[in-house]
Amino acid sequence: MRATVGDKLIQHGRVVGQHDQVSEVVEVLGKEGSPPYRVRFADGHEAVMSPGPDCQVRHKEEHRQPQY
After folding, report:
1. In the prediction, which pLDDT does 66 show?
2. Is residue 65 part of a domain?
3. Residue 68 is assigned to a structural domain of this protein
4. CA 68 to chain centroid
5. Are 36 and 30 in contact (CB under 8 A)?
6. Could you say which of 31, 57, 59, 66 is the most buried, measured as most Cβ atoms within 10 Å of its Cβ?
7. CA-to-CA distance for 32 and 24, rounded, in angstroms?
8. Domain of residue 38, residue span
9. 36: preceding bond cis by omega (within 30 degrees)
């Protein structure tokens, strides 16, 4: 798993009815984009995460709106 500052980290819910948690990577603490990452959640809370198999990185280029 590789991420850069500004990417979104999506942690998928593990049980039925649990929503995905989305955070933004604000600092990469590993070498060459590898974990751990400092992330910021929508409520402003920050945490250091080493994502597991239930996580997905959405790169900045993937969540941009197409330009017409």
Report:
1. 56
2. no
3. no
4. 27
5. yes
6. 57
7. 18
8. 8-58
9. yes
Nearest to 20 by CA among 50, 47, 41, 46: 41
User: How do strand 21-28 and strand 8-11 relate by DSSP bridges?
Assistant: antiparallel
CB-side neighbour CA atoms (13 Å) of 15: 0
Over the stretch 31-63, which tens digit does the pLDDT of each residue have?
999 999 999 999 999 999 999 888 999 998 765
> Is 31 inside any structural domain?
yes
Residue 63 lies in a domain: no
Mean pLDDT of 5-15: 91
State the total domains in the chain. Answer: 1
In the numeric block, the tokens 């995905």 are attached to 20
Rounded to a whole number of angstroms, the distance between the first and last alpha carbons of the chain is 32
Instruction: Note the pTM of the prediction, 2 decimals.
Output: 0.81
What was the pLDDT predicted at 57?
94
